[in-house]
Amino acid sequence: MGAIAIFTFLGHIAHKEGKTVKEITSGGLDLAFIAYPGLITTLSMPNFWSFLFFLMLLLIGVDTVIGLIDFESAFAWDFFQLRKKMKKQYVVLIIVGSLFFTDIFLATNNGWYYFVLISKHAGGITVIFTLFAEIYCIAFVFGLDKLEALMHHRTGETIPKPFKFSLKYLTLPLIGIIFCISVYREFAVQTNEPTWQIWVGRFLISIPIASCLIGFCIKRKTPTAEALVQRQ
């Protein structure tokens, strides 16, 4: 719906000026921040709608960050077995502080340029590969049977067999195909970016992928389904 609103407005502007949409804008991450404010100025009481629009962006950002911090803190709390070593609020403080100091350069004068570089290269192939690794770990490494045993113990429900089949034999191969196509396009498609920028972007791509592969090489003893149920 957001895309429909953006390009409907851009089409309206292009029609009024006798141009094509491609001549109006070249796209990019800032497209929504150009189209929506322009659209709001055509409404009555534009200041009121502008306030609501940017309040919406603020709330969406806060909600996203809260979910991210909660996931990362829970992962660190369980993976590194910090329950008896450190209070959870200290874990959250360390994560929030680390994210603050690693992301503070995005607030500089060139912050938008850095953000586009990271988003363009670290938000595509890496997300697809991470999704592939997560599904593989859940379906085959941890096992859907163990997950089903935990879910049945907690809620009394089971995982439908069509869902198991789809996750193992349809979703996983499809994501693998998408990942291979994305890697091919990364090296085959020519862009106007400087060479150093391309290789910096590819380095950003390789970091999470290498982390996942290293994680696969680390052997960790996983408990049986019975042991997991007894812990609940």
From TrEMBL:
InterPro entries: Na/ntran_symport, SNS_sf. SUPFAM superfamilies: SNF-like. PROSITE patterns: NA_NEUROTRAN_SYMP_3. One of its GO terms (biological process) is sodium ion transmembrane transport. GO terms for cellular component: plasma membrane. It is found in: Membrane. The keyword Transmembrane helix applies. It is a multi-pass membrane protein. The chain crosses the membrane at residues 48-69, 90-115, 121-144, 165-184, 196-218. Keywords: Membrane, Transmembrane, Transmembrane helix, Transport. This is Uncharacterized protein. It comes from Strombidium inclinatum.
